[in-house]
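ARCHIVE CARD
Drawer: 12
Card no.: 0347
Subject: one protein chain, sequence and derived structure
Cross-reference: see card 0346
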Amino acid sequence: MILIDILSTNTFALFFQWIQKEEQKARINRSLQPEERKKRRKRLRVRERAERRRKKVRRRARKSRKEEERKQQVQRRGLGSSSDDNSEDESMSEGEMARLKEEVEEKKKLIVTLRNKPWRMKRRLKCLKEAQAFVEKFEGALGKGKGRRLYAFKVMMTKKLIKFNRDFENFKTACIPWESRIKEVESHFGSSVASYFIFLRWMYGLNLVLFGFVFGLVVIPEVLMGMPYGSIARKTVPRDEQDSAMDFSVLFEFGGYCKYSIMFYGYYNNQRSIGLLQFRLPLSYLLVGVGIFGYSLMVVIRTMARNANEGGDGAEEGAFTFSWKLFTSWDYLIGNPETADNKFASTTTSFKESIVDEQENLKDENIHLRRFLRVIANILILCCLGGSGYLIYYVVKRSQEFAKKDRNELTWLQKNEVEIVMSLLGLVCPPLFEVISELEEYHPRIALKWQLARIFALFLGNLYTFLFALFDEVNAKLDNEKEIKNETIWALKEYYDNYTLHHNVTENIPPPNISPADVIRGPCWETEVGIEFVKLTVSDIQVTYLTILIGDFLRAVIVRFLNYCWCWDLEAGFPSYGEFDISGNVLGLIFNQGMIWMGAFYAPGLVGINVLRLLSSMYYQCWAVMSCNVPHERVFKASRSNNFYMGLLLLVLFLSLMPVIYSIMTLPPSFDCGPFSGKDQMYDVIMETIEKDLPPFMADIFSYASNPGLIMPAVLLMVLAIYYLNAVSKAYQNSNMDLKRKMQMQRDEEKNRRNNKDSTNQVMKDLEDLLPNKSLIPPPSAEETVVQTFKSPKVTGKPGAAATGKGVNVKKDVSLAAANPRAPVTRPPGPRPPGPLPGNARGPLPGQGMGRGRGGPPPRR
């Protein structure tokens, strides 16, 4: 009753207020003139209409708010206990569930296709947030009955899995070493300079794996399980060298304690097995030395194959180059201002690269003068290569004469003459080659490859000249070693004879009590070769770093700070800022890696030195190129793959393998140092392992496999297989080219039909010309004739071109070949009738109902 009284009281109050308002309106209307009364009524109607709209909006807002509260309640119930399932089903019908599912699916589609909507970014972000909130809120309530919680759990786990995959991909990208540094270099200097740093990073990864092999299977077992330092002669510094073994000048030349350390071959013992694990150190040393080449070969070939697959995508590189760069270059996900600046610089650089490519393609100059200048340039470069090879051979021979003298009488220059000359040749010749290459006027990319090939020939010639001279020295050391070995054997025989004579004992004679530092030693030619390679590597590092510091940094400082007070413009004229020497740095890296491959067998510690060198080079050269260098005047992009670098590296790998295999298979090892001492050849370790450690039938298998009667057919079979695969590869390449050509022709024809242009395909034109009067083409309909009258077609004047500018649809409109005649042809064909006039249809003229005896075209229905 109280509630009824309150409702009636409120209703009466509202009714009374309405009556008062109506009376007030009536009084105002009576007091106004007719015109003013009309205006008043109009304003009141507008105000009432606005009030109704506001009430309607409020009702909708209340309704949507109630609907949202109801959906939230449904979601809470869906994620609650299973005991509430019956009540949930009562509160949410099947129709509501279906409608909610449709809305969720629509929101998901909107999230996927939002990027393609032609909306402003503000509207996109707003719609994206609303759609994601809606999906996240109601997606878990779409299950039915007891499976609702399972469905919600699946949805949650799917989202978490997607987020985990995205975060893991970001983590993998962040774990790529020096990726941001390389991208920064690429944005300012182009892809050609960045390709060097990518190659340097790849080389660092390769050497890191080789370092793991050498230290894990050779160095660490010797340190942990081998005999300690000073226990035997090969691990002890000789008595006459101990006074100067710690001098800086001696250590700098890798003598003294460095020479008798784990860095070099001579330190390792020749015990067949060491430690509790019975580790086969000599076998491990040989297998690791050869396995380094095998692993490197596998990685290089695999990288070349992957680059070849990524090299081309089948599209035309020159199609719409500038349009693609203009409209698709920017990355809209960039949010960092510095990254945006780098992207802007990268896009600008890519335009420069493409412009240079187009300019080089349009060049047309005197070909005879260019060929003459190229011949002159090649003659000059051959003279430089021959002179550098002769100079290195002369210096190495001279160093062998210095080695016979006392080292205290030699100056520092005479001691390091070979390394200094080789480093200076590598420093002076590449710029000289670059100056000579200006006569050839090649495209920048082609000029870079020629420059790389010439510097490669220089480095390779210098290295092999050094090796030939070094092996002459090795042969001399082997002769000296034979004499020392004979003297040692004679001394031991005299000792045993004297001991037997004095003590009258013939068995269990103790060895001579001589300190390891006083034992007579041979020259240990393997350690000497390893020292030479280590010295070459260290001197190359020093020259490279000093060149960057003096030639780039000091030059940039002079240009930067003295340009304001100089007589001419130092930036535009001499000396100006330096450019990054791509060819010299790449070939220096490859040449250094060749020395590592050759020297790692004689100096296991050389791989660790190279890892440190590559690590420091990445930071040092990135800093130098960003702070001291400027982009090339002729900016160009690198090829899609680094297979040119990889090809040079593969060639260096093969040429580095030959000296090592020669020393393993031909030269006898030193008798008193290294893991192969006491054997006639180094590979005897494998034969000893096969005989003593493997079953007899395995020894028979290896003996049969090493039979030349089986090796020669196997080699011949491999050669035939390579020839067959090469032929199949060429056939596939030709098929690929034919398919590309046909696809291009089809695209051109489709484009010309779409643009209402004449056919550009000469083959199609010839096929059209073969059709007599085009009698097989169906006549145009009346509607097409009327439309054609108003279009005023373009007159091309080309034979075989349609008046409408469209080509002939061979598949649909005509049959290119008629059936063979039943009787032999006994007369030549008659003259070709005149073609249609411009503006007329290509179909048969009125009255010509026959064509090749096949009858006229079928009537249209």
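Annotation on reverse: The first helix runs from residue 2 to 31. DSSP finds 25 helices and two strands in the chain.
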